[in-house]
Design goal:
Length: 133
């Protein structure tokens, strides 16, 4: 199942008081994600995705995701442990004059369907370790 949300982040929304929105999904495994800001946002609209108080994406807690018309996609294998699972989008906008949109897309597969992808990822990791990569 693919989930998609679009949120408008008002101009001059500081990181210290961000827009926070719930991303509610059914249980399963997140296998892919994408963050997108439409062209003209000049990377002013920035965001993080959290589980509770912990930053999940980007991987560095002080980092953020921002684009200007180019989607930022990535593969993932993150288990959503319960029905009506909730993550949080935390977004801010450093533009002083314009509201900007942020689009979040998340692909979730049932756990049984996602299992082969994890097996392949684990095999790749083992081969890398054996080769010292």
């Amino acid at each position: 199942m693919q989930y998609e949300w679009t949120f408008t982040v008002p101009a001059n929304t500081p990181e210290s008081d961000p827009l926070e929105k719930v991303l509610q999904m059914d249980s399963g495994v997140v296998v892919g994600m994408e963050i997108y800001n439409p062209p003209g946002s000049h990377r002013y609209c920035r965001c993080r995705i959290l589980e509770g108080l912990s930053v999940l994406w980007p991987g560095n807690p002080t980092g953020y995701i921002a684009t200007d018309g180019t989607p930022v996609p990535w593969s993932e294998h993150y288990v959503l442990k319960s029905p009506d699972y909730r993550l949080w989008l935390r977004a801010w906008n450093i533009s002083l004059s314009r509201d900007h949109d942020v689009v979040v897309r998340i692909n979730v597969l049932p756990a049984a369907a996602a299992a082969p992808f994890q097996v392949i990822a684990d095999l790749v990791d083992m081969v890398k370790k054996l080769l010292g990569v």
